[in-house]
Amino acid sequence: MNWLQRLLHPTATPARIAHLDARHARDVAALHQQGGFARGWEPGECAALLADASVAGDGVFPGQASRPAGFVMSRKAADEAEILSIVIAPGHRRSGLAAILLGTHLSRLAGSGVAQVFLEVEDGNVAAERLYRHLGFREVGRRKGYYPKPDGSRVAAIAMRLDLG
Hints:
The protein is an alpha+beta fold. It has a single domain, classed as Aminopeptidase, CATH 3.40.630. The chain has a seven-stranded mixed beta sheet, with helices on both faces. The chain is built from five helices and seven strands, in the order H-E-H-H-E-E-E-H-E-H-E-E. The two termini are about 25 Å apart.
């Protein structure tokens, strides 16, 4: 376990973080389907995103796993980035992997010249909000009725920003 992993979550499962590419598209799509989103991503969409030079994707591989137990993807534009999605497989949640994954991803973004990172989180997703705030994100706005729910209702998106520099 490296210093960043211990700092972010001292009892986290030992894991390695690796860049993802189009070869990981099926794994990413399967994980995204488990993320509770209104519409999951298809493998072709994931392959296109991972092949895009403006998109950065990292996976978290616990222990000696050969398949990721989670991923984060962001799109970079100039000195800003937007987190497109982050998902940890249900069986690995609450293990500290999300903090390790996102913390490492943010460090890599900072190293590539990104100064600000933005994301949106569904209002009421307490675990995700807690993680983002722990890493230094702060609320900068809300989008009323942004996320569709299975029952046809809609819930707000909380827009958050993190200054890296």
